[in-house]
Amino acid sequence: MGKGSKKKDKHKEPDKIQAAPSPQPAAAPEKMKNKDYEREMFKLQTELVKVQEWAKATGARIVILFEGRDAAGKGGVIKRIAERTSPRVFRVVALPSPTERQKSQLYMQRYVEQMPAGGEIIIFDRSWYNRAGVEHVMGFCTKEQYTKFLKNCPAFETSLVNDGIILLKYWMEVSEKEQHRRFVARMDDPSKRWKLSPMDLESHRRWYDYSRARDAMLAATDIPIAPWRIVTSDDKKRARLNCIADILSRIPYEEIPYKPPKLPPRQKPKGYVEPKLPHQKVAERY
User: Fold this and answer.
1) Mean pLDDT of 117-136
2) For residue 279, is it within any domain?
3) What is the residue-averaged pLDDT of the chain?
4) Can you tell me the distance from the alpha carbon of 251 to that of 60, in angstroms, rounded to the nearest whole number?
5) What DSSP string describes 118-174?
6) Residue 267 counted as domain residue
7) Per-residue model confidence as pLDDT tens digits over 30-69
8) 141 CB contacts (<8 Å, ≥6 apart)?
9) DSSP state letters, 211-248
10) Does residue 64 sit in helix, strand or coil?
11) What is the CATH number of the domain that holds 128?
12) How wide is the angle at C-alpha 125 spanned by C-alphas 117 and 50, nearest 5°?
């Protein structure tokens, strides 16, 4: 061994391996600009009009139901679906609390009464799933009624689909933090305070009771013939776009060729003269 050389240490520690950097949490998507949102929404709403004309032409029957916690965004997406469509085809159903007479009927009876005829699309803003959610959590139904509902609901929905109805079920999933923020925003906005009911306040308090009810409902009623589809709704704009796009993908519609009508000419006045109306006119404030 030459001068100045050092004896190799058999027990020398191997070079330390650099630890892989910890994965960083995914950054929240950039806030969608109103211009981009409105452009995409208009495209989807144009397709909804095509669905409307297809349903009228073919006699299709469609049921779309929306469930989710309070302030999850159900009303927002329903409003956008109905915004440019005919209320005679896209009919929104938001039933009030049952009357005493309805309470003595078959539970599904008042919902069956709302089922679509040919060429109709029914949108349920909350549905028969009230029994699995608010009625169960708040004690508005018995444990036996709740258990029977979870057991019988899949058979009910299977019968709807087997009868030719297209049934789409959406659960709007909002986070605890975002729901709280929306509740506070409602209190601060005079135009939205009506949205904050005593039941909403109770749902805020009973977050985990509603979580358990949601879990049990999804487990019992997510069936192949009528599956649940979850819409992440903390970002309202993206939730609306994603949900409507999914609805369009689930309906086998085709564009019905449009034949613009020929406008007939105006009739001749034959001496008619516009009178000076004596009625009060609305003040032109704007």
Assistant:
1) 98
2) no
3) 92
4) 10
5) TTEEEEEES-GGGGTTHHHHTTSS-HHHHHHHHHHHHHHHHHHHHTT-EEEEEEEE-
6) no
7) 889 999 999 999 999 999 999 999 999 999 999 999 999 9
8) 131, 135, 149
9) HHHHHHHHHHH-BTTB-EEEEE-SSHHHHHHHHHHHHH
10) strand
11) 3.40.50.300
12) 50
DSSP 3-state of 61: strand
How many domains are there within the chain? 1
d(CA 125, CA 207): 20
Strands 90-93 and 120-125: parallel
Query: Does residue 197 sit within a domain?
Result: yes
- Strand ranges across the sheet with 228-232: 90-93, 120-125, 61-68, 166-173, 228-232
Determine, yes or no, domain membership for 260: no
- Amino acid found at 252: P
Beta carbons of 173 and 232 less than 8 angstroms apart: yes
Domain region containing 172? 34-250
Closest to 64 measured CA to CA, from 46, 76, 50, 78:
78
**pTM > 0.90:** no
Dihedral sign (CA 233, 65, 203, 151): negative
pLDDT the model gives residue 282: 87
Q: Which residues lie below 8 Å from residue 233, measured CB to CB, with a gap of 6+?
A: 68, 72, 73, 172, 173, 174, 239
